UniProtKB/TrEMBL annotation:
<keyword id="KW-0560">Oxidoreductase</keyword>
<dbReference type="InterPro" id="IPR036188">
    <property type="entry name" value="FAD/NAD-bd_sf"/>
</dbReference>
<dbReference type="InterPro" id="IPR023753">
    <property type="entry name" value="FAD/NAD-binding_dom"/>
</dbReference>
<protein>
    <submittedName>
        <fullName>NAD(P)/FAD-dependent oxidoreductase</fullName>
    </submittedName>
</protein>
<feature type="domain" description="FAD/NAD(P)-binding">
    <location>
        <begin position="9"/>
        <end position="288"/>
    </location>
</feature>
<keyword id="KW-0285">Flavoprotein</keyword>
<dbReference type="Pfam" id="PF07992">
    <property type="entry name" value="Pyr_redox_2"/>
</dbReference>
<dbReference type="InterPro" id="IPR050097">
    <property type="entry name" value="Ferredoxin-NADP_redctase_2"/>
</dbReference>
């Protein structure tokens, strides 16, 4: 690898839209920032990113390639690697990688996203992001007016069915192992959504296209696409060494890392942004949150540097104090001014 920093002002863990957006904000603030990306974006199976103004339909790979180039344009470093953990080191952190390397950072921005845990139904994983979907805003337009099945697999499944009904009149709700309540059944009926009872065992595929849903009793219901509610779990194991862990989300849809509205966590010096803390954020929202976190991190560093400059300014004059004052005023050691 050509790029590397042994010391960075900020290490961004995760190089998706959120991580790159946060890094861009920091790099444009002349911070020494390094992005470490494991190369496992959540939206990799999707053909395009949707709902992102002026970039709608852009492939995830193209979006990230352009984002990396923009970060590097402003002096940021982007490397491929898997972060295995982070530990406190004085007033900063040591970030460890799977290949044995490590980097010291004054601040951390964690944008590692989440993992979608799919229901245990044969064939779902293979079709994920193609004709097995979860979000009406990410993929709904692409299946408009088609025969859509919604698999009851989480607390938001009925809500999903009602949302997809906005996009097509042909919606079937498969109760699977979570039959709707009486109130929910009335809502589905009122919207003309058929309910099929019985456990689903597989999705049917022909010529690389989803064609239906198979139930345990042998019935096959024709469908063009299937909607599932995944259990969304933040990728947060790397934070365990700092005492920071993912917790159950109040909605019951998965696990997330709590933070304040700016992304600041309970661990001083650590920010999070994107799906690792906001399980339902689309690309635009994740990127915006990380940009906010990047700005907050820069402001936090500025205050630290200002305090150091004031302390040096108040010291009696000497060669040593002059050197400390110059270093404090400089702030960004990378640029040396």
């Amino acid at each position: 690898m050509d790029e590397w920093m042994d010391d960075a002002e900020v290490v961004v863990v995760g190089g998706g839209a959120a991580g790159l957006s946060g890094a861009l904000m920091l790099a444009r603030s002349r911070r020494a920032v390094m992005v470490i990306d494991a190369g496992a974006p959540r939206n990799a199976p999707a053909e395009g990113v949707h709902g992102l103004l002026a970039r709608d339909g852009t492939s995830p790979g193209e979006l990230l390639a352009q984002g990396r180039a923009e970060v590097r344009r402003y002096g940021g470093v982007v490397v491929d690697g898997e972060v295995t953990g982070a530990t406190r080191d004085g007033d900063g952190f040591i970030v460890a990688l799977a290949d044995g390397r490590s980097v010291r950072a004054r601040r951390l921005l964690v944008t590692t996203g989440l993992v979608d845990e799919l229901p245990d139904v044969a064939g779902l994983r293979e079709r994920w992001g193609r004709d097995v979907l979860h979000c009406p805003y990410c993929h709904g337009w692409e299946v408009r007016d088609q025969a859509v099945g919604v698999l009851a697999s989480g607390p938001m499944s009925v809500h999903q069915a009602l949302l997809f009904r906005q996009l097509t009149a042909d919606v079937t709700f498969f109760s699977h192992t979570l039959p709707p309540t009486a109130e929910q059944a009335e809502q589905l009926a009122a919207r003309g959504i058929r309910v099929v009872h019985g456990e689903v065992t597989a999705v049917e595929v022909a010529d690389d296209r989803l064609t239906g849903v198979r139930l345990r009793d042998g019935r096959v219901v024709r469908r063009d696409a299937v909607v599932v509610a995944t259990r969304m779990v933040a990728r947060a194991d790397l934070l365990a060494g700092l005492g920071l862990r993912a917790v159950e989300h109040p909605s019951g849809v998965g696990e997330y890392v709590p933070a304040d509205p700016t992304g600041r966590t309970d661990v001083p010096g650590v920010w999070v942004a994107g799906n690792v803390t906001d399980l339902t954020a689309q690309v635009g929202a994740a990127a915006a949150a990380a940009a906010m976190a990047g700005a907050q991190i820069n402001a936090d560093l500025v205050m630290d540097e200002t305090q150091a400059a004031v302390a040096a300014y108040r010291e009696p004059f000497s060669a040593e104090s002059e050197a400390r004052l110059c270093a404090a005023v400089a702030g960004d050691r990378r640029h040396g001014f």
